[in-house]
Amino acid sequence: MKVMTIDVGNTYVHIGIFEGERLTISRIVRTPDNPYGEAMVLGSVKAASRIDDAIVASVVPWLTPRLLNALALITEKKPVLLTSASDIGIEIHYKKEQIGPDRLANALYVKKHVGERSIVVDIGTAITIDAVEADGSFLGGVILPGPHTALQCLSEKAALLKEIELDREETYLGNDTASCLRIGLLRGFAHAIEGLVKGMIEELNWESPRLLITGGDSSLLSTYLSGFNYVKDLGLLGLKAALDTIRSGEHQGGR
Fold first, then answer.
1. Which domain holds residue 220?
2. Which one, of 20, 75, 23, 13, lies nearest residue 47 by Cα?
């Protein structure tokens, strides 16, 4: 069975093709900003003419219906849109209508592929740091701006601070504006993540949870973080788990 999973973020779109339980194709593209964005997204994986099933998680409202309509033309089943209203078999200790589908997919990854209490750090346009029980129960978390988002805001608000490349800095002492910005944005966010994770673990009274890091900009910070396991396709694997859960519920409900 061939399944497509699509995770639409504000900066990147992550697309996967599963054959059975095996992820055979994984692509990351920039989130399009043109009226034909769905064609670019689907074309990036050179999708076969037939897909058996598909699921989409999206935080970009204008692109969502276009993708669903395009997928409906190449899938055997009506594609699934993962939302807070989806029946995915986990408890959500959060204002349900406000939780993003990407965070739900991450929780499903923990349930299916980890099976241990976990802290999931997802770094993209925003940074989310979420606490998830072994059974996938979502306990809450933290949201921060991502490094590129913070840099863009600074460059727009401060006339003398221009956008720079966020390359690795080995020191804590910058000797020009660019290095000072890089240290602040990269090391600063890494220390913020470590401090917030430590506070979560203490508040929950957890002992040695799994620490997971993922997301389109995770490579910017992962080298500064110790004790974290990087999972490149965490969101796609979580979406596949969500699709399996939803379809299984439909099948049982139809009996």
1. 96-236
2. 75
Please tell me whether residues 171 and 138 are part of one structural domain: yes
241, part of any domain: no
- Distance from C-alpha of 154 to C-alpha of 163, rounded to nearest angstrom: 8
| Residue 110 reports pLDDT greater than 90 | yes
Q: State the amino acid at position 213 in one-letter form.
A: I
Question: With 60 as the cut, is the pLDDT of residue 255 above it?
Answer: no
Looking at the chain, which runs of residues are DSSP E strands?
2-8, 12-19, 22-30, 53-58, 80-81, 118-123, 126-132, 138-145, 210-214, 229-230
| Residue 188 placed within a domain | yes
Taking the CA of residue 235 as centre, how many other CA atoms within 13 Å lie in the half-sphere pointing to its CB?
A: 32
Q: Count of domains in the chain?
A: 2
Closest CA to 128 of 113, 116, 146: 146
Cβ-based burial of 216 (10 A; exposed 0-12, middle 13-18, buried ≥19):
buried
Is residue 213 a contact partner of residue 194, using CB atoms and an 8 Å limit? no
Reduce the DSSP state of residue 119 to 3 states and report it. Answer: strand
What is the rounded distance in angstroms from the CA atom of residue 238 to the CA atom of residue 105?
4
Q: Is residue 165 part of a domain?
A: yes
Phi–psi pair at 86, nearest 5 degrees: -70, 145
Residues that are catalytic: 102
Q: What whole-number distance in Å separates Cα of residue 191 and Cα of residue 184? A: 10
Q: What angle (nearest 5°) sits at the alpha carbon of residue 61, between those of residues 58 and 100?
A: 40
pLDDT tens track for 147-172: 999 998 888 878 767 777 888 888 99
DSSP letter assigned to residue 131? E
Q: Same domain for 227 and 135?
A: yes
Is position 251 within any domain? Answer: no
pLDDT at 249: 78
